Amino acid sequence: MSKPPVHAFFVGRAVAEALYEQLESAATNAFSELGKFDAEQRERLRQFTDRVVERANRAADEAMQTRTGTATTSTTTIQDIHPAELQATIDELRAEVALVRSELQRYRSSLP
After folding, report:
1. pLDDT tens digit string along 69-89?
2. Average pLDDT of the segment spanning 18-37
3. Where are the beta strands (DSSP E) in 13-76?
4. Which residues, 6 or more positions from 9, have their beta carbon under 8 angstroms from its beta carbon?
5. Is 74 exposed, middle or buried (0-12, 13-18, 19+ CB in 10 A)?
6. Distance between CA atoms of 71 and 65, rounded to whole angstroms?
7. pTM of the prediction?
């Protein structure tokens, strides 16, 4: 009579071990997929950030080249510029510098 309860005990133990292995495997797979997803998202974010910075650098280079060409032309004819026009140009440049500073500050504050 003691044989069926002993057998039931070992069957129950084997079922518990099998369920534990299945649970362990499922959890390992889930964490692995989560890790892959996280790594992919970080890589996509890094690539996006690189593209944005590259575009910003290109735009800044183009603006500097345009400004350099304008500045060269302006410095050769600085005596011909009316003081009010000169002041307006200075005010525009100050506004652009302020805009760039605020954008740079916003960019820096968004970094982790």
Report:
1. 655 444 445 555 677 777 888
2. 94
3. none
4. none
5. middle
6. 10
7. 0.44
